[in-house]
Amino acid sequence: MADDHPGDAMYNNILHVGFDDTDSSSGMCTTYVCAVVLERLKACGMTIRGEARLIRLNPFAPYKTRGNGAVSFSVVLDGAGVVERVKKIVLATVEEYSQMDDPSTNPGVVFYHGPITEDLQEYSLRTVQSMVTLEEAEKLAQKIEAEVFKYKNGRGVIGALAAIGCPLIDKTYELIAYREVHNYGKVRRVNEDSVRLMDRATYPSTFDNLYEDHITITPHTPCPVLYGIRGESKEAVYRAHNLVKSEEPIERFMVFLSNQHTDMHLQNTDGIAGMEQYQCYRVAGEVNSTPYVIEGGHVIFNLKDKSGEIECAAYEPTKGFRDTVRGLAPGDDLIVYGGIGDKGTLNVEKIQILHLEPQYRYLNPRCKCGKRMKSAGKDKGYKCPRCSDRITDVPKEKMEVQRNLEKGYYEVPPSARRHLSKPLIRIQRHK
Ligand code: ATP
Predict the structure, then answer these.
(1) Which of 172, 329, 391, 417 is such that its CA lies 20 to 30 A from the CA of 425?
(2) Do 12 and 80 reside in the same domain of the chain?
């Protein structure tokens, strides 16, 4: 049992609530709906156990709007009629804020009064790492006697149930500050120097605040989020928030407990041949082609193991990480972290170089006079351009090429990092 979930002994007085798929690419955010719900529940005297949870699901799920996030929280049942009152407030708020007119918005809400079973945890993990169906989610909900509410096709039930059941062994926190409605869609006004100062004062307890001096805590979508600060503890994200100076009013803010930046989306695999589209992996293999650049600036190489081969890509938004990938060479051994998207290509998030295969250049031999010789024509040996001496049957000189890489980990910049991807600074801290 993960330590953020009430133990079995406590479940009798806890109601778990999860919901998902309330937003669309043109607006709203499921975390904002959660913040409003919690405000309303607290205003009615309800007690929330611990933090609300922002659970990121499979980043390659095709129906996602942006970051494939779902939310859940637990209400303490400390009086008569609490369950009915919670349901009424949650459903009314989800109905009020969901972008129902958007065909891709299909909200789902789940209420669950019971222990977080192994089945439920296993289902959640699959929803983070691979694809599940609505039928599967509904069947499990029925089995554990969770109550499900579907709007339109109700696909959000998948994420809602996963958010309730997701075990959090490794975890992070995100403090999200929200904008006033009249500012939605406008340029975000956050004092950049204050973010740099905040980063200096709180990194690495908070992380991914900056990339090469540009601030990365503000999104670029028309959603209600002004900024999000990610960190290792509640205290760290609060401290950072107090250091950031917003130049527009903050309507509200809230801290979520999360599986962000834990690598929870990555599954180990026995072989490349068994890897499937829309799933995320940690895979070992050998570079099997010289990396090359395609239109758009994306860098491509092939990775092979005994079972098969897969095309890997470091896409243009991964910026300087592409230089690392371009420096790879056939024979290098790697562990690649990433997921398989629409085109069957493995999107690389991180690599660990285990072995750098020596690379060689072959040069024409030198003449007695010291000058490097030129080819005298096919099968005609070499000729010195200075003294015109000729030689045949002399092998080329083998020279090892200096590699500009070292063994170790390399990652994409914060601006291109997936929500679930674990930054190296967290990996190092955990060591
Ligand atoms: P935001 O991050 O802004 O909240 P989003 O990216 O989370 O938006 P949603 O609008 O929630 O996107 O849409 C994702 C949909 O895909 C939801 O209906 C969710 O239930 C479903 N879904 C999530 N993960 C999976 C999965 N692994 N398999 C199948 N469906 C999934």
Answers:
(1) 329
(2) yes
Percent of the chain with pLDDT over 90: 91
Q: Do both 321 and 242 map to the same domain?
A: no
258 lines ligand 1 (CB under 6 A): no
When divided into structural domains, the chain yields a total of: 4
- Count the neighbouring beta carbons within 10 Å of the beta carbon of residue 382: 21
Whether 144 contacts 114, CB under 8 Å: yes
Give tens-digit pLDDT for 128-173: 999 999 999 999 999 999 999 999 999 999 999 999 999 999 999 9
Q: Is the CB of 93 under 6 A from ligand 1?
A: no
Give dist(CA 78, CA 88) in Å, integer.
Answer: 17
Q: Which ligand 1 atom lies nearest to the CA of residue 23?
A: 10
Of the candidates 227, 258, 289, which is a domain's last residue?
A: 258
Best of 19, 30, 32, 64 for a ligand 1 pocket test (most atoms within 8 Å of beta carbon):
64
Rg (CA), the chain: 27
71 lines ligand 1 (CB under 6 A): no
23 close to ligand 1 (CB < 6 Angstrom):
yes
Cα–Cα distance, 230 to 176 (Å, whole number): 9
The pLDDT value given to residue 274: 96
User: Do 390 and 322 share a structural domain?
Assistant: no
Question: Are residue 33 and residue 142 in the same domain, yes or no?
Answer: yes
> Would you say residue 125 lies in a domain?
yes
The residue count of the chain comes to: 431
Q: Is the pLDDT of residue 51 over 70?
A: yes
Q: Which ligand 1 atom sits nearest the alpha carbon of residue 278?
A: 27
Helix intervals (H) in 179-303: 192-202, 234-243
> Do 176 and 242 belong together in one domain?
yes
Confidence (pLDDT) at 151: 96
Please report, for the domain that includes residue 187, its CATH number: 3.90.600.20
Same domain assignment for residues 313 and 387: no
Are 419 and 64 spatial neighbours (Cβ–Cβ below 8 Å)?
A: no
Interval between CA 104 and ligand 1 midpoint (Å): 10
Task: State residue 1's pLDDT score.
Answer: 42
Mutate to test the pocket of ligand 1, among 28, 63, 125, 276 (most ligand atoms within 8 A of CB): 63
pLDDT digits (tens, 9 = 90+) for 372-425: 999 999 989 999 999 999 999 899 999 999 999 999 999 999 999 999 999 999
The verdict on 309 and 191 lying in the same domain is no
Give the position, in ligand 1's atom list, of the atom nearest the Cα of 57: 24
Residue 278 CA to residue 272 CA, distance in Å, equals: 14
pLDDT reading at 61 higher than 90:
yes
Residues 65 and 154 in one domain: yes
pLDDT at residue 430 in the model: 84
Whether the model clears a pTM of 0.85, i.e. scores above it, the answer is: yes
For ligand 1, whether the C-beta of 154 sits within 6 Å is no
CA atoms within 13 A on the CB side of 419: 22
Expressed as residue numbers, the domain containing 390 is: 359-401
Domain boundary among 141, 165, 189: 165
